[in-house]
Amino acid sequence: MPGCTTDYRASFFPRGLNDAGTVVGLASDFGGCNDDGWVWSLCGEFELPVRSMRSLSAMISSSFYTEGNEVNNAGVVAGAAEIFDGKNAPQRPFVWDLATYDSGTGLATGFAIGVAEDGTGAATDVNDGVPAQVVGTMTRVVGSTPFPYAFSHSFGSSPTSFVELEPFPGQLYSSAQSASVSSSSGDALVAGTSSENNTGFPPVTCDDQLGWNGIRWTLLDPPPAPPADPYVKDDVREDFLTSGPIDLLLWKTESRAVNSSGMTGGHYFDPELSCKRRAAFWSAGGIAQDLGGLTGLDPLAETTVNAMTDVDSSGGLIIVGTDQFTIDGVVWWRSSGAAAFTATLASSLDLHPCEWSIESLTDINEKGWIVGVGRHSSPTTFGGKQRALLLVPDTCVADLTGDDFVDGADLGALLGGWGVCPTPTNTQPYCLADLNCSGGVDGADLGILLGAWGNTCVLCDEGFQSMAMSTAESGDGSASINGPAAFLSAIGMFGFVDVDEFAEWYSELSSAEHASVAEAIGAAMAGGGM
What we know:
4-stranded antiparallel β-sheet; 8 helices; 29 strands; globular
């Protein structure tokens, strides 16, 4: 990211994630750098560099403000950019096509949706339909009054072509937050909000909030002939807490996520709690469940849903969001065949690297990978700025080298970090080999690694894997590395001279035996100067 990362002054906010591990977001800095959209790829998809950020502004040769809000599996990025029109540089809904990215020039095709007269706005999501539907919100000014309205653009059509998604009758304003594709009909599904006033858009006061209703649009495919509407509107409002004491007509909502089954997530505004937001989930038929009051969450906290998975073959579903009271991410999940959800704060999860706290979970893909915003526990690291984090399955925690295998290379990395963890710095904020978060690398961490010895941790699909060939497959023998002399001497106590043979024996021991063996090895290595 030009200008903003050289002294680590920027905060990085991830907003969207696709199934191949491509992440988009916003870098924001109040110390002089322009806000800048970015894209990052876990596996080098679309010829992007592996695990390295690229500026979305630079991809279109623009130094103006940009933001990336979502990326679909085909590499279409929905966001916003300031485009100079000869007089001003208004923020416009903008689309990047990563399929056209040229690694040599660093450029990719991009375009603004609509024309300058359509007003300012942003594209917030893009689905995996064919053609993909890009959705968002524009604002036109009539006289001196701003009129926010939701839109949908069909990717591949003229950049000036879009459908305005109207609010409910009697209301004037709308916004779109999320898009999906119906698994039953192939129609595009859009989640957003319909409002009767634009004061404090988004809402600020309780009166403003009580003028908002969640809405789900279904864009019909193929669209009917004019003058018929090309979509159907569904109200997702007061169909929950039916036994509660409050007049349900006072309960208003905001829809923020929709999946391929038509399920919707967001929050409702509780008028008895000063209109605090409480996370809510609506079934495809509109029946809702209160997620904000589940055990594990403070009932007075403000919570909201940011994203959800599709329903798996067994009925399982995962939802991610934010607890704004504790400044924490939240995971809600419904297991196979269950109707009720369980809530867990990110702070209660066993996360690694250990030094990070997660303040919000912003998106989840169909593999269960989650992106969120975190902050390092050391107030001096990155200047206390927020950073983008990608959470992947814990089976990968012992893959210290990131080559998708737990082998001798990881053992070498662990032994190289043996001892008390160093003070974190901006360039080395992690103590990566501290697998149990104890503050140092010792026999317990060695035991975790040896317990995972030989595991395959393939995060990247075969077609995208830049680090595809493991050391074992390449035949260079490095997977059987024997390690430093202190370690060889330590395993020699148990009659082994080869790490692979020792690891195989170790994997067959009981948990109690694991602990005692790891402790003995750690003590022997410490005595040997490691």
